[in-house]
Amino acid sequence: MLIKKIFLAITMVVIPGLLLAQSGKVSDNLSLPSKILNGDRKYGIYLPPDYATSERDYPVLYLLHGSGDDQTGWIQFGEVLNSADKAIHAGSATPMIIVMPDANTGRRGYFNSMNGDWLYEDFFFKEFMPFIEKKYRIKKDKRFRAISGLSMGGGGTFMYALHHPELFAAAAPLSASVGPVTLDEAKVSYKRTTPDATDQQMEAYYNRHSAVALVKAMPDSTKNSVRWFIDCGDDDRLSPGNSFVHIAMKEKQVPHEFRMRDGGHTWTYWRESLPKVLEFVSASFHQY
Q: What is the CATH number of the domain that holds 195?
């Protein structure tokens, strides 16, 4: 009888510990072929702890890296495995698949070029998302899809969610590069990269790649389509642009959460942001 009691006591302690010790899985050197970009494109992925042992489908978070990084950035420097595992085990985040595409090969960035010779955004929506959501057990409804990213990836987060509010339940741009605030500012920038662009081309490109312009032009019917979480450090050189978007959203009466914490444009800041992002997007995935 004593041995049975000891065994039961050990079981009650050890088994929950083993369950809590289950870890998700990350891969950072996967690829898919792209006809649009004329070559293979790499991506990284996080699969939650019970993915291999379950048969269920999962929500998905597309997590975009910044300029100078690639699909390995959030895994290597952002410690996505540790953050996601902790949040899931703590119950602050629901088990989800996290997908990290490479936007640093061939050309850098998440947008189509002005002259149409590099169509990364087309690749993302026409090839990458369909590939990912067919290959992995992902819930395909809008309410189970979210997007986030830092710096350049924060800009991608803004543009993708503003371009396609019908696809994303939540968007969380971090320290985002929000694009030019005014058309005059845009023209100066565009002339450096595309000197042959016409005024008409530059205005059209600005209207599609400025978060401020997109928010101001947002139809009333989509104001509540996406749950927004905007986070930027007070010492970040990009904080003015994020503040302008916040003001534009306030004036347009677009519901959003805006955070400006102590910190700069650093991985220390983004590692601290990630658990908040996971909690925020999980709220969109839940039923109330």
A: 3.40.50.1820
